[in-house]
Amino acid sequence: MKHLTAINRKATRMEEVTKDVVALQGPPQQPEPPHIPNGCSLVFSPGWEADRNGGTAGLCQPVERDLFDCHMGCFWPAQVPDQLNHAPDWTAKCAAAQKDWRKIDLIFPDEKK
Amino acid sequence: MTKVTRAMAVVGLLLVTLLADVAMTQQPAAPTAKPDEGMPITDATVLKACGTCHRPDDQGQMSRISFQRKTPEGWQSTIQRMAALNGLSIDPQTARQVVKYLSNHLGLAPEEAKPAAWEAERRLIDYKYTASADAEFACIQCHSMGRVISQRRTRSEWDLLIAMHRGWYPLVDNQVFRRNGPPPRDPLPDDRPRDLRHPVEKAIDHLARTFPLKTPEWTAWSATMRPARLDGTWTLSGWDLGKGAVYGTVRITADPAAPDEFTTAISYRVARTGETITRTGRGLVYTGFQWRGRSTTAAGADSAMREVMFVDRDWRQIEGRWFMGGYDEVGLDVRLERIHTETRVLGTDRTALKQGGAGQELKIYGANLPAGLRPADIDLGPGLTISRIVSITPDVATAAVDVAATASLGARDLFVAGASKPKAVVVFDRVDAIKVKPDWAMARVGGATFPKMLAQFEAWAFHNGADGRPDTADDLNLGLVDAAWSMEEYAATYGDDDIKHVGTLDAVTGRFTPNVDGPNPVRKGSRNNIGDVWVVAKYTTGATPAATVRARTHLLVTVPLYMRFDPTVGGQ
Predict the structure, then answer these.
(1) CB contact under 8 A, A39 and B144
(2) Would you please indicate which residues of A are annotated as catalytic (active-site) residues?
(3) Which of A53, A56, A64 to mutate to test the interface with B (most CBs of B within 10 A)?
(4) Model confidence over B386-438: pLDDT tens digits?
(5) Pick from A80, A98, A113: which is nearest to B562 by CB?
(6) With respect to CATH, is domain B232-339 assigned 2.40.128.120?
(7) What one-character DSSP code corresponds to residue A97?
(8) What is the tens place of the pLDDT at every residue in B484-514?
(9) Where are the domains of chain B?
(10) Is the whole model's pTM more than 0.80, yes or no?
(11) Is the distance from CB of B32 to CB of B38 less than 8 angstroms?
(12) Does the complex come out with an ipTM higher than 0.85?
């Protein structure tokens, strides 16, 4: 950036980022496939844990905003309990998931069973 | 999920429903297994617990059950699904008996289980299934491929598995099983006919051919399988991420009433610090080789670690992972080796000795080290002299080592009273660089409703080797060093403020603890406390003049899982 002068707002904002700008400095060719940890879901775009660039910038945020719809639509079968079969009462205690997200049950299997 | 994709999903669901209706009218009923394809079940507990729905035929084959083989985790998952969705009522003791019987009689052979060991060991790894891109595509969109390759089924059973997915997860056809849009019409370059089957059809064909119910491996293993006789003393060599090598012993005692159940008394030291840990536990061995255990320290249940290990078929080595944490992310890699009265060297507290340094103390961990150990009994190779034995116990000897100024740089094998440890220490003259391990890491916010998923980092020192260039084959790995830890912004977007919110990194231990889950009203759009950061290690090398080297790795701090899809099996 030392040899360039910002001439618009976008360029000025880039200058404000003093550290290395990973995404913005990427080469023009197709980048390496992102690292996606094993077991993470990539289903559709964005994924659950990571976006298509292997980061969190593109995730649906906050996750609670879309949670109820994910639950109703059975959209994330391995990440969010679905209302159709597995957890029909999952959100019963919540008037609104955005507001009462703390009340949502955690349905990890009970090891004592 | 955006509104557009949501709308597409709804339309897709309608289409799938319509297509399914059409399919039901056009296709015969779900395929059923041939009578002689399965494996008979003779256990009264299984017959009673499962037989109401899975009625045995005249050959003792129970529908569905007799036509698949799985790990203990796989069978537990099945029972949990039966209880959650199919109205099964079963008490824990009966369920344990069913898991044990099915794992032993419809389990995997060692050769079949080993490639998927990381699944049961709950490792966060990169894994690429190369045998079929279609099978990988169809499976890993939602769950780990380890879940798939740790099962064996008849072709009919693989078909029914797909039917089960379609029944429980009605979007799955539109999401992944079927090709979206019209089939490609352009011909292949060499005029071969294009395979126009849907991804799931190609995947099932591959899985049925690659992972059939009956295999030579299982036939051979089930013929020789027996309870492993593990009673005795075993040396323990392990790696505790962040702390480094650990060495000690495990005393395994068989339960007289049950040949495949054991109690354990574990004692080990962290090599670099000398910290001693003692644990007691219980374990049981499924299918003659799959150890599943649980152990605790005196601190009680909060210290419980689950143990997943593989017993070698010669009963002389046991390898695996012990783990704990909200996502099984904290733990040790361990290897047990049976020992009697022979002397054994396990490792050393430091793995690098400075060229030209006199009187450098080296702790040698082992088993049955002789009480009368003399300096002459320890051989570290050319240029290294043992000046005296500082102290000696049966499991650790401390020796003072002089390293000649002319000693060649490089690794040295260690011999102690007839026992040996290859490449135990490295002679070095300076630290050229450090690297942060692991190469990447993931943490999940938690603490309010969900557990936190922690991340642990280590700094390793390296010498550039004879060629003087980094990252070449002759680099010398000098082992763990105590680095100073900090975080830096991984600027993936404008105004990236992740570093303020994702959590804290211990400056000394390198352990990252994520922030609390839930929306954060301080952040733009009430984002969760998720984000991307660099984890940076800095190390002052001790050279003259002092030099500081640094290295970094990418840490992804992300959202919780709202359900756990991968159950684990613990000891009783």
Answers:
(1) yes
(2) 66
(3) A56
(4) 999 999 999 999 999 999 999 999 999 999 999 999 999 999 999 999 999 99
(5) A80
(6) yes
(7) T
(8) 999 999 877 777 789 999 999 999 999 999 9
(9) 25-184+194-223, 232-339, 344-428, 433-558
(10) yes
(11) no
(12) no
